[in-house]
Amino acid sequence: MYYDKLIFEISTEGRKGYTLPTPEIKRYDLPETLLRDDCPGLPEVSELDVVRHYTNVSFKNFGIEKGFYPLGSCTMKYNPKINQDMSNLPGFTSIHPYQPIETMQGLLHVYYETQRMLSEISGLDTFTLNSYAGAHGELVGLMIMKAYHESRGDFKRKKVIVPDSAHGTNPASATVAGLESVEVKSNKDGTVNVNDLKAVLDDEVAGIMLTNPNTAGIFEKDILTIAKLVHDAGGLLYYDGANLNPLLGIARPGDMGFDIMHINLHKTFSTPHGGGGPGSGPVGVNKKLVKFLPKPVIEKHEEGYTIDYDGDALTIGQISHFYGNAGVYLKAYTYLLTIGKENLPNVARYSTLNANYIKESLKDVYHLPIEGVCKHEFVFDGLKDKSTGVKTLDIAKRLLDFDMHPPTVYFPLTFKEAIMIEPPENESKQTIDRFIDVMRSIAKEAIENPEKVKGAPYNTVVKRLDEALAARNPIVKYKDLLEQ
Ligand SMILES: *Cc1c(COP(=O)(O)O)cnc(C)c1O
User: Fold this and answer.
1) Taking the chain (484 residues) in consecutive chunks of 10 residues, what is each chunk's mean pLDDT?
2) Does residue 188 belong to any structural domain of this protein?
3) Which residue of 50, 52, 174, 258 could cross-link 160, Cys pair, CB 3.0 to 4.6 Å?
4) What pTM was estimated for this model as a whole?
5) Are residues 400 and 330 in the same domain?
């Protein structure tokens, strides 16, 4: 029922009759001397061989459709096929940005509605879907922050406070935006140390970048105090909303006092993720910052949607070609309608339940540095038994032998042997129980046969790689690989 309605809505809106101009086809007459006598004799491969080749290549890879993928701070969530089906509707795939506005009302409707739903979920006034990734969203958000201070003639505000537990993109984005990041040390559980924060707040602070719950999965209980302190000092609050699972339908960054945020559609809203894109990192702002949003801006009027290519006089300008990655927000829109408003809190509840279930089931064998209830993810600090010599990297490699992707390792930097586990909401209890069993068996093996764990993986296409060399001297050409 629900799907029928959705398909109908998208297809009729998206297809509203239009014709693209037929391109003019030019014919060239080549001189005789350049013409071939025979067919070019290109190598040929049968369809079957091509299919086998790609199927085999896909088996060598690991993806969410192959096995459990509990990569902390990454929300590796299944991408339902209906998302793909909807974004593949011809009415969307054949749209050209320069075609008349009245012929793309369906797509603009999706843009506008996605933006509106994100506002409702986050408590921020307006969103733009123009930015292409989380880090891109951060840059856009910080450019807005900078433009806000400059519009008030306050040019000395250049400092952005970033806790040491933050994602690496945060300080990087601050630098790219022409601001300067100032690191503050976190408490042991990754929460902000309010006294340390007070010490760095002055009239040069542009704002603070935070994520709540933090990377260790702990909710910042002092968030209202922090928001007041930063606002009183004249700064703004930026929310890194890459991983929004634990908040959906339960709590809103806007209500916590945040002024700007980005969201990763390719994490929380089940659009494909990895391999460098395509992604989408919508940016939301509260009322006083709407005029700084990038252009173009999609607007809704009684007679339909329009695109304002000029934006407000104070806009930070254009940050993407046209209006973002349409294929991505079409998928996120589908996901949101499929889940439905009334079910949205279940995403938060199940992801939180899954994380706590794993944490409690393994904490007798893995070292849990932060006791208590976590949100959507949590951190172990290596094995509890430190005498085995088995490191976090060995455990990660051993997991591959059981067809499971390792969790995030050695991040956050606050724990030496960090293993950061994030199970999304849509994993079954069977899958989670199997992960727990495998993690327990590795812990046991580390005591009984540590060398075995240190030599892993055994069942993968390539064995243990020299990761430093692989990062510094990547071999990306097939020919170079053959010469190896
Ligand atoms: C993934 C992530 C980002 C960056 O998002 P990209 O789309 O990879 O640029 C930023 N912050 C946090 C907390 C993240 O998990």
Assistant:
1) 40 44 66 87 91 91 91 93 95 90 95 97 98 96 98 97 92 97 89 93 98 92 96 98 96 98 96 76 97 96 93 94 92 97 97 98 97 95 96 97 96 92 96 98 98 96 86 82 71
2) yes
3) 174
4) 0.88
5) no
Does 281 contact ligand 1 (Cβ within 6 A)? yes
How close is the Cα of 267 to the center of ligand 1, in Å?
Answer: 9
Residues 138 and 193 occupy one common structural domain? yes
Q: What is the domain count for the chain? A: 2
The pLDDT score that the predictor gives to residue 22 is 55
**Separation of CA 170 and ligand 1 centre (Å):** 9
Helix (H/G/I), strand (E/B), else coil: 214 = coil
Cα dist. 198→189, 192, 356 in Å?
19, 11, 33
C-alpha span between 242 and 376 (Å, rounded): 13
**Residue 284 and residue 324 in one domain:** yes
What φ, ψ does residue 304 adopt, rounded to 5°?
Answer: 135, -170
C-beta 140 within 6 A of ligand 1: no
Residue 399 lies in a domain: yes
How far, in Å, is the centroid of ligand 1 from the Cα of 139?
12
Instruction: Give the domain range for residue 149.
Output: 82-339
Whether residue 305 is found in the same domain as residue 365: no
Which of 339, 356, 378 is the last residue before a domain boundary? Answer: 339
In a domain, 133, yes or no: yes
- 329 in the same domain as 385: no
Task: Report the distance separating Cα 134 and Cα 167, nearest Å.
Answer: 11
Q: Are 73 and 243 in contact (CB under 8 A)?
A: yes
Question: Distance from the CA of 314 to the center of ligand 1, in angstroms?
Answer: 27
β-pairing verdict for 418-421 and 408-409: antiparallel
Domain-ending residue, one of 339, 369, 402: 339
- Which DSSP letter does residue 366 get? B
Which structure tokens are listed for 302? 């009684």
Long-range contacts of 36-41 (CB under 8 A, 24+ apart): none
Is residue 76 in some structural domain? no
Same domain, 312 and 368: no
Report strand pairing: 159-163 vs 180-184.
parallel
Query: Among residues 210, 205, 230, which one has the least CA distance to residue 220?
Result: 210
Q: Cβ(405)–Cβ(67) under 8 Å?
A: yes
What pLDDT is stored for residue 3 in this prediction?
40
CATH at 154:
3.40.640.10
The verdict on the CB of residue 243 being under 6 Å from ligand 1 is yes
Q: What are phi and psi of 241, to 5 degrees?
A: -100, 35
pLDDT at 181: 96
